Amino acid sequence: MKPYQHKEYVQRLMKFNGFEYAESLMKKNSNEDPITGAIGLIVNNQTKSVKNQILQLNDDTFVNSPFRNYLRIAQRLGFKVVLEHPFQGFNTKDLVKEWLYVLWNNELGVLLKFDTMNMETVKSAFFYFNWKPKSNKHFKKIIVSNSHCTKDWVLFGDYDCREALHLKIELLEDNGNFIVPWIKKPIISLCHYADKKGNMDKITNERLDMINDDVLKECIGTK
Quick one: how far is CA 197 from the chain centroid? Predict the structure, then answer.
């Protein structure tokens, strides 16, 4: 696999906030001053355009990726589909048949799920994992959307991966090691956006039961 181009630059772009930049420039609140808000919006849109160009240059995912392209990239990274679950989505006009995808990377012990929007793009995407940094210095380089740490410095949780799936996997590999099998099971959700709220654990367990992969279930502690 060829080296990821402009890796550090993409990381900075992902952290950049155009509204914060505009506020520092104008010394005004972007929510209260329309000019400051407009500058923040323009800068954010320009930043997003540049970021998406670099992500696509690296054959990586971006927000609102075409779902077939997202699936192809995930499979290129070693993920295999373990569940394709159809569901009735919705938009402002009519009901739409959508898909929930669950994928598994056996080498890394990473569980990935995403759902589609209008059968065209990815609406949400998360991967679940156990990972240990090489050192405290390496730990500080990783910012994960929702995670916890054991007393032995094993990070477990989920990572929002609508954008930069490849980059986020690579950064974790650069700075530590994925733990297989899992030492601590994170809170997993295999729900899609049309699922009724309140039964998430029950729905997730039902969908895990649909998966015919004993290695996966042993690794994540559901077998």
Answer: 21
Give the strand pairing for 95-105 and 110-117: antiparallel
132: amino acid identity, one letter:
K
Gap between the Cα atoms of 197 and 199, Å rounded: 6
What are the helix (H) ranges across the chain?
Answer: 7-15, 18-26, 34-57, 67-76, 136-139, 165-175, 200-210, 214-220
Kindly give, in sequence order, each residue whose CB lies less than 8 Å from that of residue 20, ignoring residues fewer than 6 positions away.
40
From first CA to last CA, the distance across the chain in angstroms is 33
Cα dist. 126→47, 50, 111, 161 in Å? Answer: 23, 23, 8, 5
- Express each pLDDT in 59-116 by its tens digit: 999 999 999 999 999 999 999 999 999 998 876 566 678 999 999 999 999 999 999 9
Residue 80 three-state SS:
strand
Q: What residues contact 124, with CB distance under 8 A and at least 6 apart?
A: 114, 115, 160, 162, 193
Contact 114, 67 (CB under 8 A): yes
- Are 109 and 186 in contact by the 8 Å Cβ rule? The answer is no
Instruction: Give pLDDT < 50 ranges for the chain.
Output: none
Neighbours of 158 (CB within 10 A): 20
* Beta strands at 176-178 and 121-133: parallel, antiparallel or unpaired: antiparallel
In eight-state DSSP terms, residue 39 is H
Residue 42, SS3?
A: helix
| Half-sphere exposure at residue 203, Cβ-oriented, CA atoms within 13 angstroms | 15
